[in-house]
Design goal:
heterotrimer, A alpha+beta, B mainly alpha, C alpha+beta, A: alpha+beta, Cytochrome-c3 Hydrogenase, chain B, 3-stranded antiparallel sheet, globular, B: mainly alpha, Methane Monooxygenase Hydroxylase, Chain G, domain 1, 2% strand, flat
Chain lengths: 425, 153, 476
């Protein structure tokens, strides 16, 4: 259907910055791109009446890096280094989503061990992202300490992730059909995770909750600010804590289960991991904050179920299969392994995906993160499209902030948890 | 007299401290101005319009109410000294305080009426109920914001 | 030279106070950073010098060496004037702080050959001092063993005087400080306005309304203390708190007027523009607020002024509520700490050491209050502007008015046994004040339940004509 310009798309038109008798006290303010509270490079053009926001026009694209286009030139394993850099508050998520999509395209069923490890990593990523966002809720309102309490714990997640993947941040950990590497030492890993989820993290969360949850200033600043109604949440396609805080009971982990969230994930009839989806109905900044806090507790619950039951076996699907790299001892000791290795990683070689197109969403910390991959049967995708939760959640921001005050901009922006790299890609 | 001199010299010392800092700094620090540096900071974008804008009327109301209350506080001070000190006076504390109290209660009462009025009619609220307030945003065709924003100053 | 300083002791005090306050300000910044790191479970500055102790010096050097530029469109004169104004104003207010009570000195001066020995002796009394009694003049004739007078005889005058251990003993000290501190708004307003920056302008506006609003409850809570003592002299207010109730509890106003103290504390937070009232410079909203455009030394002056303002307001708080230089319990062992010269006026001491110890005690208490400032800053989020105004106008001002009334009535009924005595003895007056404080608190809590709820301000104001609210275009 052709796109027709109607009156309702008037906002595409230049708008006035206050002329005439009524517009005299209107003024326009650039909020960003270089602003301490936009966290990254966002630009909001605010039209103000005093401190009251009459109109907010977000300008995006300051961090555009052509990530999606790069997907057409890198093969299914190489591209993971790029997706890592999208949602940098929890990079592991992007990897799970990307390789989930690639594996769905190729019809690969992962080994149970890989599924468990990926699920644990994913939940650690959720904790990582929520710690940042929950802390930032305090930071944006001026409570710097809560932010650092959260960040301190992120540091410990980095330690675990480093142990697990060999990299602290941009891990590039997943591969088609498995993982870059198995756990170096399962006992140590378990000990680290246990210490983290049983001891340090609950204490840190307790600290943050004590600082903020019943703090009169915090509650007054966040309750009723940036309210999303249930209808709006659905109409604007919001997902993740944004939608759940507005009463939309949608969580990809329940609705389109993947990894260990699906029943019978190990092929032996094991039930899906148990967790609850927190919902609030008020849809304001405070609700989003509480939903995130509760989700963190649920993540801890999920990790606790899985960490002691990591199944044995290989992490990669059939070592003889085409997609996964052979183990290093095979590469070094047998000609078949060496050939297999080079077949996969040499330029213009590698494996070819079947023709087709898939969409694979996962529940990332900010909402539905999906990859839509179109394959023309080559070793690189024909087209990769990301469904970034930030971009879609951010789209409602001008509506949320209209009629509020300047001080609320930071509160609402922080509660959406906009990650500009993912927003602009 | 000497007291004033003391304070004056003390202030002069403060001023000298400030001056020394500014002058020493001016002598040693680099001075490499350029157009970007001397632009007004507005988050890295060229500023749209002047910042010397008309601002919210509420500020005037606050100033007005402040004026009344400040006069009141100023009046209270000499009264408070006399009232507190009355115990040492030869006329007897009670007599002086009785008069002072009645006078001040009257003044206070008048003030309270005003305060109650302000309270009742919402002049003390910076934002009157957001639920009932609305602003009219009339976007007529006019200045092209994008053009204005992109032109270098 | 020594003679000169003996006759003008305030010059020394002024110089020392300047150095001490400005040095302290620099180290308060370090203390703030260390406090923050302690609260936030991290290490804090530790690179420059041991434990980062040289950090303030490094900061100072950096402030001096960094380039100082101002926006081309700024108002040049006001832009430069604002930070100077701010810091000088704050420095002035330090002048009337009663650091160490009064020092009583007895000096013997050789006035041989003066026509009027008495006048000559008096001329040696420092101009800020007060003479105690008449100078004793005696002729000392040097005699030989045989009793022969060896001419000429010498005339010695022994003169006793007291001088306050502060820079200027104003009898309206409280009023002076309140007046001078309110001038600090000008620095903020001019700086914010002159920058021609929207963030600065907004910060300046917010600062004005905020400081203006919080000045009223500040003044009213100070009034409660003034009514109790009937004086505006900070030194005298301190002196009257030097006592005990039941030989255990120091007769400090913080115990008689706890609610007033809390209100005062909140107001000085707002006056000093400190979190959670730092709306004028909040980083997350207004970048730097009124000092967004300032750099280098001019910024440093704003920064120093903020901390110097904290010192002043905290010192006033100490003088009003925490007995100033009074060192509790220790003066039971060493009575000289609380006078010993004049039983009715404990601030007088004959020992310079005692004066210095008192100054140190005063200072320590001040730093303790400043620590509360920092503690609060790193614990609490920030108000929004309308909430800030609501706190002042709908909570603090009515409460402080009620507190004033209660204090007035208590003084009316119980403050009759002589101004000095009643606080010393404590008894009825103190108990009545404590009950009054609790009553005001309870009454406020009760009445606030009865009053109509404050307007809902967190909801979005309806913007008629908004692209998200198109239906109301037709309606509106």
């Amino acid at each position: 259907m052709p796109y027709t310009l109607t009156e309702s798309s008037q906002d595409l038109m230049p708008f006035t910055s206050g002329n005439g008798p009524e517009g005299d006290n209107r003024w326009t303010l650039n909020f960003g791109p270089q602003h301490p509270a936009t966290h990254t490079t966002l630009r909001l053009v605010l039209e103000l009446d005093g401190e009251r926001i009459l109109r907010c026009t977000p300008h995006i694209g300051f961090l555009h890096s052509g990530f999606e286009k790069l997907g057409e030139h890198l093969n299914y394993n190489q591209y993971v280094t790029i997706v890592d850099r999208m949602d940098y508050s929890a990079p592991i998520y992007n990897e799970l989503a990307w390789h989930g999509a690639a594996e769905r395209l190729m019809g690969i069923e992962l080994t149970p061990r890989c599924k468990v490890l990926r699920t644990i990593a994913g939940e650690l990523g959720r904790l990582q992202s929520h710690l940042l966002c929950v802390g930032a809720a305090g930071l944006d309102l001026g409570a710097f300490t809560a932010f650092l309490y959260g960040f301190n714990e992120r540091e410990k997640i980095y330690d675990i992730v480093e142990f697990m993947t060999g990299q602290r941040f941009h891990t590039s950990w997943t591969r088609v059909g498995g993982l870059n590497m198995d756990l170096p030492d399962e006992a140590v890993f378990k000990r680290m995770v246990h210490k983290f989820i049983d001891d340090t993290l609950p204490r840190a969360m307790q600290d943050v909750e004590t600082l903020l949850n019943k703090n009169r200033i915090f509650v007054d600043r966040t309750k009723g600010v940036g309210t999303v109604s249930r209808e709006d949440a659905i109409a604007w396609g919001l997902s993740g804590p944004m939608a759940r805080s507005a009463g939309v009971a949608r969580d990809i982990r329940k609705d389109e289960p993947y990894l260990c969230f699906a029943d019978n994930w190990d092929g032996q009839g094991t039930k899906a991991v148990d967790f609850k989806v927190p919902i609030m109905t008020t849809g304001d900044v405070y609700a989003r904050y509480l939903v995130r806090l509760e989700e963190m507790k649920q993540s801890i619950h999920i990790i606790r179920q899985l960490i002691d039951n990591i199944p044995g076996g290989p992490v990669n699907v059939s070592p003889e299969g085409k997609e996964t790299l052979p183990p290093k001892d095979q590469v070094y000791s047998s000609i078949e392994g060496l050939i297999h290795h080079f077949e996969l990683i040499m330029t213009n070689r590698g494996f070819e995906a079947p023709k087709g197109e898939v969409y694979y969403p996962i529940e990332s910390a900010n909402g539905e993160l999906g990859y839509y991959v179109v394959s023309a049967g080559e070793n690189v995708p024909w087209r990769v499209r990301t469904r970034p939760p930030c971009y879609i959640n951010y789209s409602i921001f001008p509506k949320l902030i209209e009629g509020h005050m300047i001080s609320d901009v930071v509160a609402v922006l922080g509660s959406i948890n906009v990650i500009a790299a993912e927003l602009d890609r | 007299m000497e007291l004033l001199l003391t304070i004056t010299i003390f202030v002069a010392l403060g001023a000298v401290f400030v001056l020394i800092n500014l002058v020493v700094g001016a002598l040693v620090r680099p001075h490499v101005p350029n157009a970007e540096k001397s632009a007004v900071y507005e988050c890295g974008e060229p500023s749209i319009g002047s910042s010397w804008v008309q601002f919210d009327l509420r500020f005037y109301i606050v100033a007005l109410v402040y004026l009344i209350f400040d006069v009141e506080v100023a009046l209270f001070y000499p009264w408070a000294v006399a009232y507190g000190n009355a115990a040492n006076s030869p006329e007897g504390a009670f007599a002086i305080r009785q008069t002072a109290l009645v006078d001040m209660l009257f003044f206070f009462g008048v003030l309270m009426v005003g305060f109650a009025y302000l309270w009742r009619f919402g002049y003390l609220d910076w934002v009157r109920s957001a639920a009932t307030t609305s602003i009219k945003a009339d976007y007529r065709a006019g200045t092209d914001l994008r053009k204005e924003a992109r032109i270098a100053p | 030279m020594i003679e000169f300083f003996q006759e003008h002791p305030w010059i020394i005090i002024a110089l020392v106070a300047h150095g001490a306050v400005l040095g302290t300000v620099a180290y308060l910044i370090l203390l703030e950073r260390k406090t923050a790191s302690w609260v936030q479970d991290r290490i804090g500055p530790n690179r420059v010098g041991p434990w980062g102790l040289l950090q303030p010096i490094a900061d100072g050097l950096k402030f001096i060496l960094k380039e100082d530029y101002r926006p081309a469109s700024a108002d040049k004169v006001l832009f430069s004037l604002a930070p100077c104004l701010m810091i000088i104003v704050i420095i002035i207010s330090i002048a009337v702080l009663p650091w160490g009570g009064e020092h009583q000195v007895t000096r013997t001066i050789d006035v041989t050959g003066q026509t009027d020995a008495r006048l000559a002796a008096i001329s040696h009394v420092p101009s800020v001092g007060v003479m105690v009694g008449e100078p004793k003049i005696e002729q000392i004739a040097a005699t030989t063993d045989a009793g022969e007078v060896m001419a000429p005889a010498r005339t010695l005058a022994t003169v006793t005087y007291r001088y306050p251990f502060q820079i200027a003993k104003l009898n309206i000290g409280v009023l002076f400080i309140l007046g001078v501190l309110s001038l600090a708004i000008y620095g903020v307003v001019l700086g914010g306005w002159a920058s021609n920056n929207k963030f600065s302008f907004l910060g300046a506006l917010r600062a004005t309304a905020q400081m203006v609003s919080y000045e009223i409850p500040l003044g009213l809570s100070v009034l409660c203390i003034v009514i109790m003592f009937g004086t505006l002299d900070l030194g005298e207010i301190v002196e009257k708190q030097v006592s005990y109730w039941g030989h255990v509890i120091p007769a400090w106003n913080v115990f008689t007027q706890p609610i007033t103290f809390l209100m005062f504390l909140i107001c000085i937070h707002a006056e000093a523009n400190r979190a959670p009232f730092d709306l004028a410079e909040c980083e997350q909203e207004l970048v730097g607020g009124y000092h967004t455009e300032y750099s280098s030394m001019r910024f440093a002056l704003f920064f120093l002024a903020e901390y110097a303002g904290m010192i002043t307001t905290s010192a006033v708080c100490v003088a009003l509520f925490f007995g100033g230089w009074h060192i509790p319990w220790l003066d039971k062992i060493w009575p000289a700490l609380s006078g010993g010269v004049d039983p009715t006026n404990p601030s007088i001491t004959t020992s310079l050491t005692v004066c210095l110890i008192r100054t140190f005690a005063f200072f320590t208490k001040t730093v303790a209050i400043i620590f509360i400032f920092m503690w609060v800053r790193w614990s609490l989020p920030r108000f929004r502007f309308d909430q800030l105004m609501m706190l002042a106008w709908r909570a603090l001002i009515p409460m402080s008015l009620a507190m004033l009334m209660v204090t007035t009535l208590v003084v009316y009924y119980f403050g009759t046994e002589g101004n000095r005595a009643y606080m010393r003895v404590g008894g009825k007056m103190a108990v009545a004040l404590m009950i009054g404080n609790v009553a005001v608190l309870a009454g406020t809590m009760f009445i606030s339940k009865l009053l109509p709820a404050p307007p809902e301000t967190n909801r979005r104001v309806r913007v008629i004509g908004s692209r998200f609210n198109r239906t109301s275009v037709a309606a509106g």
